[in-house]
Amino acid sequence: MATLAYNNIVVSLLLYVLAFSFSVSGRPATFLQDFKVTWSESHIRQIDGGRAIQLVLDQSSGCGFASKSQYLFGRVSMKIKLIPGDSAGTVTAFYMNSNTDNVRDELDFEFLGNRSGQPYTVQTNVYAHGKGDREQRVNLWFDPAADFHTYSILWNHHHVVFYVDKVPIRVYKNNEARGIPYPKFQPMGVYSTLWEADDWATRGGLEKINWGKAPFVAYYKDFDIEGCPVPGTRACASNPANWWEGAAYRQLSPAEARLYRWVRMNHMIYDYCSDKSRYPVTPSECMYGF
Q1: Which secondary-structure segment (H or E) carries 4?
Q2: For 172-224, what is each residue's pLDDT tens digit?
Q3: Which sign does the torsion angle of CA 240, 245, 248, 251 carry?
Q4: Pair 171, 160: CB distance under 8 Å
Q5: Residue 20, pLDDT score
Q6: 3-state class (DSSP) for residue 104
Q7: 290 — pLDDT class (breaks 50, 70, 90)
Q8: What is the pLDDT of residue 285?
């Protein structure tokens, strides 16, 4: 009887592990395993058997792609090598979006093109329950067109963290208890686009795109999605055993907090929280720490 009971426990554990493994997606081997082209297939080129891709912008078109599934909580990351040289007027974006019209949730990385020799600026934004306009801008402390760097979004019940490599550059806390919207009900897809936006992207639109430098090319590889796909196992998103919900991911570590302060002190060039022309009254989410 003891042997039978033990066997039943082992079988139950195996079934649980199998169910959990199928509910948490992660680490596609190739681009087409988890993504699809959504805009201008001729401008997205697969490299190395689909383990890397090029996004191309020219005068005829930009391009974009999206995940085949939506996800509720987790972490998404990609290694990106941005457009080299004179990229003014271009925007390379990597973001999550709920694809809903009125109550959109969205988490944005937008890489704003530059004139040669000027720093690359990354803009982040957070939409929660349809409310956005939460832009922050950071000048990157390296040349993101010289090599690949990892850009990640960690999203759990406690906060959203934007990472450049392993450096946190933005934290948006869950302050629902204080009446501040937080994205937690709507699954989001993973998207990326490359397009021309010279009416605002570089120095507020003062620097226009130089089509003589086209085509503009950005490279992507190491696509990594670890999260709860929707539709999928209903219990996945609320499962405290998901690694991204663990104690180590509920707040920044002391080392991460020091890096975060360093970025804000030395590389942040715009924060909506400090923009009194737009927000005479400081937005409520800006009053609480990370």
Answers
A1: helix 2-23
A2: 999 999 999 999 999 999 999 999 988 888 888 888 999 999 999 999 999 99
A3: negative
A4: yes
A5: 39
A6: coil
A7: low
A8: 92
* DSSP tag of 139: E
Contact 218, 80 (CB under 8 A): yes
Q: What percent of the chain has pLDDT over 70?
A: 90
- Residues sharing a CB contact under 8 Å with residue 225, sequence separation 6 or more, in sequence order: 25, 26, 27, 28, 34, 67, 71, 74, 75, 76, 190
Q: What's the rounded Cα separation, in Å, for the pair 116 and 154?
A: 32
Q: What share of the chain is helix, strand, coil (3-state, %, to 5)?
A: 25, 40, 40
Residue 192's alpha-carbon distances to 54, 60, 61, 154, in angstroms, are: 12, 18, 15, 17
Taking a C-beta distance cutoff of 8 angstroms, is the pair 94, 82 a contact? no
CA triple 115-123-132, angle to 5 deg: 140
pLDDT of residue 28: 52
Q: Which amino acid is at 288?
A: Y
| DSSP letter assigned to residue 25 | B
| Catalytic (active-site) positions | 106, 110
